[in-house]
Amino acid sequence: MPQLHAAILASKVNVICVIHHGGRSIFDDVKPLIKPLAEQGRVTLVTLGDHVTHNVKADVEDWAERELFNGWETMPIRTLVPVRTNTRVGLMKDF
Fold it and tell me: What is the sign of the dihedral through the CA atoms of 8, 25, 18 and 42?
């Protein structure tokens, strides 16, 4: 992981970080990895639900206040609601 992180930081790629659930423990791990990217405007957080987006935005606002770091305030946070299809139901009808 450290080599991948170093390679990403050395590049000019934009990173999309998918967050499945919120909570302080996950950000203790993710936050140090994305902070340099947030400084450069190269990271977008994508959550898997409106409730997660709400929690993540609250955490990020808290970081911005505590750290006086503008990168958190401008970091995009988007919601992607997964769409599930049940293809087995369709297949079962064919039998």
Answer: negative
pLDDT tens string 21-50: 766 666 777 888 889 999 999 999 999 889
Alpha-carbon Rg for the chain, nearest whole angstrom, is 17
What is the domain partition of the chain in residue ranges? Answer: 2-93
Q: In sequence order, which residues have a C-beta less than 8 Å from that of residue 50 and are 6 or more positions away?
A: 79, 81
Cα–Cα distance measured from residue 3 to residue 72, given in angstroms and rounded to the nearest whole number: 24
The residues that bridge with 78 in the sheet, in sequence order, are 46
- Taking the C-alpha atoms of 37, 40, 41 and 43 in order, what is their torsion angle to the nearest 10 degrees? -10
- Is the pTM for the entire model greater than 0.85? no
Nearest-angstrom CA–CA distance, 45 and 56: 9
| Nearest CA-CA partner of 49 in 23, 21, 73 | 21
